[in-house]
């Protein structure tokens, strides 16, 4: 998992969209709670699953996404309703702006001056 330290050039609109869409995955599920965790400094948004039987089932990352400049990097997504589809349908984010790191896609390298 590559969490990137981001510059302050991150779009506030983009972070708001990602936060809102990730938060929709939070709530109660069968024998577990899905809890949203947001790191506004690193523009990192995730949902973890916390089982009722914590001793046998440690918390698990369900979704993790980070806004890096003008891209949304989805670091993890183990749902049956992928975050990238929600972003494309609900928020009209173009696929070119979404990086599926969990599927092996890479953030484009910055061009040297």
Summed up:
With about 110 residues, the chain is of the alpha+beta class. It has helices at about 10-25, 85-90, and strands spanning about 25-30, 30-40, 45-50, 60-70, 70-75, 100. It has a single domain (about 10-105), classed as XisI-like (TATA-Binding Protein).
Query: Average pLDDT value?
Result: 89
Shape: elongated
Low-confidence stretches: none
Classify the fold: give the CATH topology: TATA-Binding Protein
Strand order of the largest sheet: 1-2-3-4-5-6
Please write the CATH class name: Alpha Beta
> How much of the sequence is in beta strands?
25-35%
How many DSSP-defined strands? Answer: 6
Q: How many distinct helices? A: 2
Biggest β-sheet: count, sense, barrel? Answer: 6 strands, mixed
Compute the number of structural domains.
1
CATH architecture: 2-Layer Sandwich
Alpha-beta classification: alpha+beta
Give short descriptive properties of this protein.
18% helix; 113 residues; 2 helices; alpha+beta
Word description of this protein:
There is one protein chain. With 113 residues, the chain is an alpha+beta fold. It has a single domain, classed as XisI-like (TATA-Binding Protein, 2-Layer Sandwich), CATH 3.30.310. The protein has two helices and six strands. The chain has helices spanning 12-23, 83-90, and strands at 27-29, 32-39, 44-51, 60-68, 71-77, 98-100. The chain has a six-stranded mixed β-sheet, covered by helices on one side. The longest helix is centred in the N-terminal third of the chain and has 12 residues, at 12-23. The chain starts with 11 loop residues before the first helix and ends in a 13-residue tail after the last strand. The model has no long low-confidence stretch (mean pLDDT 89).
């Amino acid at each position: 998992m590559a969490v990137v330290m981001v510059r302050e050039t991150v779009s506030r609109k983009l972070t708001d969209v990602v936060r809102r869409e990730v938060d929709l995955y939070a709530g109660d599920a069968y024998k577990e709670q899905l809890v949203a965790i947001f790191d506004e400094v690193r523009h990192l948004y995730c949902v973890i699953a916390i089982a009722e039987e914590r001793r046998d089932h440690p918390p698990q990352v369900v979704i993790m996404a980070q806004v890096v400049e003008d891209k949304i990097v989805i670091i993890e997504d183990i749902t049956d309703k992928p975050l990238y589809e929600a972003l494309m349908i609900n928020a009209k984010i173009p696929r070119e702006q979404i990086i599926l790191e969990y599927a092996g896609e890479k953030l484009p390298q910055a061009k040297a001056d």
